[in-house]
Automatic annotation (TrEMBL):
The chain crosses the membrane at residues 27-44, 79-100, 112-131, 137-159, 171-190, 202-223, 353-375, 381-408, 420-444, 450-470. This is Solute carrier family 2 member 11b. InterPro entries: GLUT, MFS_dom, MFS_sugar_transport-like, MFS_trans_sf, Sugar/inositol_transpt, Sugar_transporter_CS. One of its GO terms (biological process) is D-glucose import. It comes from Lates calcarifer.
Amino acid sequence: MPKEHFDEYQPLLIKDKKRPKLPNKSLLLAACAACIGGTFQYGYNVSVINAPTVYVQTFINQTWRERYQTEISENILTLLWSTIVSVFTLGGFIGATVGGTLSVKLGRKGTLLTNNIFALAAALLLGLSYPTGFFELLIIGRLLTGINAGIGICVQPLYLGEIAPTAFRGVMGMGTSVFITGGILTGQVIGLKELLGGEEYWPILLSTTCIPAILQLLVLPWFPESPRYLLIDKGDEDGCKIALKQLHGTDGCNGELEDIEKERDNLASFNARKPWELFTDRTVRWQLLTIIVLNVAQQLNGINAIYFYADYVFKQSGIPDDKIPYVTVGTGACECITALTCGMLIESLGRKVLITGGYTLMSICCILFTLTLTFQDASPVVPYMSMACISGFILSFGLGPGGVTNILTTELFTQTARPAAYMISGSVNWLSFFFIGLVFPFIVIRLQHYCFLVFLAVCSSVAIYIILVVPETKNKTFLEIQSEFQSSNNRKACSVEGAGANLLSTST
């Protein structure tokens, strides 16, 4: 090319090499509006129930005495309290099983808005439990908060993944993790005695779950439905274009519209898939196995055990009992900061590096934590080493598995299969949550601190699986990711057929 022509086109060449612009302000606000009534509610309701434990048990005891003129037995009290806590996971499972179907019927945005009915009803029942003297309302209210969380954690990542441009899909997807950890931290802070953690305020504390619901009902209607849902599921091309312009701006909508049209043309003869259809489809078997493995591991990797042992380690370190809630808030803040850090790194390092690195670091922390707990009384320094292991484990979880898992569920499937995939992954996640809550106390009793060797096996196995099976999805369209998995399946099938042919030839 002549020099003068090269100089003429130099600005265009430089423009192509520029990094993508920052996400549109409207896109970020839409994500926040979806998250505040979605996964924020999940994190908030997981943590907020811890602060009023003693007060709720006192209320149950008092109510039982007034009704039956007798003291409640310790076993029945424990059963009722554990039911109030664990029924949340049952509601989450119910929500996950219906969330995908609702997202197809009502749309992603429509489902998120409708889901607030469960949160508002739950807040009403939880708030009325004390003045009416019915502790049963706590059980029903917690069930409804679980349903709300189950639908939210299923549909909100779906919405975020579909409204985000390809270049920022990872950053937007991290909103799920950031708002979960933000919800946990908010619940811990609101539950402090200086705020609503006093005995007289616990019904108000539990009913504050209505605040995120009200905020979402006020804000989310101002933002559009998922453009992919509008074009691919509903065939509304004009609505899709309007939504893209609002979310991405006039300059950024053309490329995304082209990608959505390609995916629509590729899926023209397909309808929304049912969960059981994915289990019989050999073309998505590795994607399906991957999300099942990752969602099981997210609950069985030991993060719940770390929080269980945290109070013990804090006491061993000499922290007074009345100061432990503030230290716990500090651990919640660490996890929230790590989720934000993961959001900043995910588009530069990629999904595979973060989630593999996270599980690898968690494996190392399991080994170190087992050693420090074994020699807890050997030196005054050892409890502080245990605290460092707790912080390291929480940070490693937030850096990779806590944030990337939901993003991969979005990216490994195309439009027609994605809602069903979220129903499966959500159901597996909630069942694993229930399983670890049921089995974990027995694991601790039998193995004590050696239980972390079990979690070591889980974390290291998942890290190896990701390295061998899961491709990097950064900056790839949904069709490109699907094509990469299909190519991998074809190579594996060819290698199996080749091995079979060689076996036949040697036997003849």
